[in-house]
Amino acid sequence: MQETGITVKQARRSEFWDAVKGVAIIAVILIHSSDSARLYGDDSIEAMAGVLVRQFVNFAVPLFIALSGYFAVTQTGDSRVLVYYKKRFLRILLPYVLWSMLAISLKDYTRFFMPMDVAVDLLLGRAVSVYYFIPVLLQLVVITPFLIRLRSRNLILFTLLLFVPTICVSYYCRVVSPCVWGDFPYSALPCSIWIPFYSLGIIARRHESLFENVLRHKSKLVLVALYVTFFACFYESFYYLVEENRNIATSQIKLSNFLFSGVLCGLIFGIKGRFEVKQGWLSEVGGMSYGIYLSHMFVLPVMRLLVNFVGVREGNLAYILLTAFFTLFAVFYLMKAAKRLLGSRSTLALGF
After folding, report:
1. What are phi and psi of 182, to 5 degrees?
2. Which residue has the higher pLDDT, 73 or 32?
3. Which of 55, 67, 235, 285 has its CA 20 to 30 A from that of 8?
4. How does pLDDT run across 147-180, given as a tens digit for each residue?
5. pLDDT tens, 321-347?
6. What secondary structure, in 3-state letters, does the chain show?
7. Residue 246 pLDDT > 50, yes or no?
8. CA separation (Å) from 241 to 33, 85, 87, 101, 179?
9. pTM, 2 dp
10. CA end-to-end span of the chain, whole Å?
């Protein structure tokens, strides 16, 4: 198979991949719901519940980035770079800017009188705290034409060349000598910290049969790797919780989580052809995952108040799960209603 090419055509939607995106966006909402546990001390039950939940869902951003790399590659060898840039930037930027403008207007509309500050907010994903993912994705889009022209071996070497120094600096700035570059979102902004997953997606698309064969013949080894790396996440997280560094304990940017997420992504790429996923609620959620990502933080605070109002203790496990469920439910059905009222073409500008 040819090792270069850029996707420039809209492929027919796959129920399997939409279902995978559905799982990932649910994990994203659970991540942000679990932040309520930060209200309590490191030795509290709520803190432990927050750290516990995060280990089950911290694969979300790595998986989305791996999927982005996977779909950036096509077997046709089409190299129309400008067409690729136009489609990707339009698809990503327009909804991002619209939702960011709404967030800025709700928080402090006077900020619009400072256009340079607004520009920096957009550049760094600061309009909403979780929007750091968009600048990361845009960086990866920019370098995609270069990445897909590298043969797989060279791509791995280039990825390591970027990733190893970045993860070392990340740990240094968060553990050894804490500084602003170790704080969120700055620690998550360089695409070099996420590039292993993007490259994994590219390689998985090029060598689909390899992933399927590894899973077919080495399934026990893959499962062992999944279990070992998963428990490594728990060990590293609770180690940092005991050391009173909850930022790392809950962070997605940990070596243990990267190893676990890498194995999980490889497993998903290996099983994609093994069974058929029928259209359903999960795949429908996945099909609107970008819009849900951009909008859910507007609904989450309201759902927190609702769950708190019915008497569930803020920050505990039940509170986290209920808040996530009601947020997803509300956003999903609001988007469905918007699609019916405005039509699919109009709502594309909002990301769904």
Report:
1. -95, -10
2. 32
3. 285
4. 999 999 999 999 999 999 999 999 999 988 888 7
5. 999 999 999 999 999 998 888 877 767
6. CCCCCCCCCCCCCCHHHHHHHHHHHHHHHHHHHHHHHHHCCCCCHHHHHHHHHHHHHCCHHHHHHHHHHHHHCCCCCCCCHHHHHHHHHHHHHHHHHHHHHHHHHHHHHHHHHCHHHHHHHHHHCCCCHHHHHHHHHHHHHHHHHHHCCCCHHHHHHHHHHHHHHHHHHHHHHHHHCCCHHHCCCHHHCCHHHCHHHHHHHHHHHHCHHHHHHHHHHCHHHHHHHHHHHHHHHHHHHHHHHHCCCHHHHHCCCCHHHHHHHHHHHHHHHHHCCCCCCCCCHHHHHHHCHHHHHHHHHHHHHHHHHHHHHCCCCCCCHHHHHHHHHHHHHHHHHHHHHHHHHHCHHHHHHHCC
7. yes
8. 19, 42, 43, 36, 19
9. 0.91
10. 33
| Residue 238, both tokens | 């609770």
